[in-house]
Amino acid sequence: MRRLLVPVFMAAALLTAGVAPSYGPGGEAARRGANAAGRLAGHVERLEVRVLDVLPHDPQAFTQGLEISGRTLYESTGLVGRSSMRSSPLGGGPTTRVELPAPLFGEGITVVGSTLWQLTWRNGIAVRRDARTLAELRRVPYRDEGWGLCHQRKRDRLVTSNGSSRLTFRDPESLAKTGEVEVTAEGRAVMHLNELECVGDIVYANVLFSDRIMRIDANTGAVTGEIDAAGLLGAEERPRSAVLNGIAAVPGTDQFLLTGKLWPKMFRVTFVPRAWS
Questions:
Q1: Rounded to two decimals, what is the model's pTM?
Q2: What DSSP string describes 171-229?
Q3: Is 35 in the same domain as 57?
Q4: Residue 86: which CATH number?
């Protein structure tokens, strides 16, 4: 094991004082130790995206939910009269698409077994679908604004957002509330939580109207990492595109797909520590 260049307790003290420690060459282990110490002390790890690949994306898709299950990519789009549910083989191929009739406004999605839940924004319902065909199976009442949605498989619970600082836990069959937690970063509430992605006990959340993604400990609501995803689109693409909104973990890897509303591209990325500045 490489010797730590800065002891963990010293790194924590430097972070508390707002000083960025210098680790020197070969100090990756020390940086990981400092990040762990910072998290224990309530600090938020600062990360950025490293782009691995650029993929096409429908520039007419007002993306509200993005998820990968097995070898299938699912996408929910919004706007009244333009909302849809889509699926396609991961890596390309024909797309299956079904429309949501007006006045439904499509929102977050997640796969649960052989079915898929799709929320609506302010319509007061959620739609359960066949995950293979996307055919509607039933509608259930949903007494909240529908924003983000993901499924924690090991805990067998859904996690939902409604644009506030709160994550709500729900039964995966009835959507009944089973609990909730407030999301905070260094003691401050984080508002506008939007599209969600569950990875074990961690929930990744897009923050609406920003290029930030929060990494959240769903058990406590504490933000353990803040990811800066700015700069994915070029200056010439920005005027025709809306906000970042779409995050899907690539199974079996540390990679994610990111896109946004009306974006012409989707990005395969990893999250890496931000360089000290």
A1: 0.83
A2: -TTT--EEEEEE-EETTEE---EEEEEEETTEEEEEETTSSEEEEEETTT-BEEEEEE-
A3: no
A4: 2.130.10.10
